[in-house]
Amino acid sequence: MTRQLKVRTRRHQAWGTVVCGVIAAGFLALGVYLGLVAVGRLGLIGHPLTMRAATCYANVPATTSRGGDSHPMLSCMGPVDGGRWITATGFSSRPRPDASVEVAQDPWGSWVPVDQGGWKLGRALSPLIPLAFAWVFAKWTLMNYRGWRNSSRLPTGSSE
């Protein structure tokens, strides 16, 4: 019984290069998105405001399809400095009625609570992981593209 060896053709190499390029672009987009979310959640855009949450409501149902709690994200309305009312989304728990909450605008214009405590470091570093994967896939894509592109220019029987 003989085994056939699978030979990597230029078409396979081109397809793999394109797929890795798409994966690199996806990781890059995810890293940019997480960076923009971090900018908003850390209060780096504009000046964060102080809000007193007057009313809060859940954005999703309180139970999942299996009957368990889903820990809904809350949206809270309340007055900010200067007397105007805003709605901030993304609270993980209901703020105390007598407490002030710091809120900031994210790059899309909605108001979000500013992260407090240990979450700041995690939020600030979160874009680095997908950006590192994007770099690895982009480097692999460029190396294979150069090799694939240059291999067609070599004379028959020669190697580099």
Tell me the strand percentage band.
15-25%
Cα end-to-end separation: 34 Å
Q: Report the strand count.
A: 6
Order of helices and strands: HEEEEEEHH
In DSSP terms (H or I, runs of 4 or more residues), the helix count works out at 3
Mean pLDDT, to the nearest integer, reads 79
Coarse shape: elongated
What is the makeup of the main sheet? 3 strands, antiparallel
Strand order of the largest sheet: 1-5-6
Low-confidence stretches: none
Query: Which structural class do you get from the secondary structure elements?
Result: alpha+beta
Percent helix, as a range, is: 25-40%
Radius of gyration: 25 Å
Would you kindly provide a brief summary of this structure?
This protein has 160 residues and is α+β, with helices and mostly antiparallel strands. It has helices spanning 10-41, 119-125, 128-151; strands at residues 49-52, 55-58, 74-79, 85-91, 100-105, 111-113.
Explain what this protein looks like in three dimensions:
By secondary structure, the chain is an alpha+beta fold. It is built from three helices and six strands; from the N terminus they run H-E-E-E-E-E-E-H-H. The protein has a three-stranded antiparallel beta sheet with strand order 1-5-6, with no helix packed on it. It has a three-stranded antiparallel beta sheet with strand order 2-3-4, with no helix packed on it. A hairpin with a 5-residue loop joins strand 3 and strand 4. The longest helix is centred in the first third of the chain and has 32 residues. The protein starts with 9 loop residues before the first helix and ends in a 9-residue tail after the last helix. The model has no long low-confidence stretch (mean pLDDT 79).
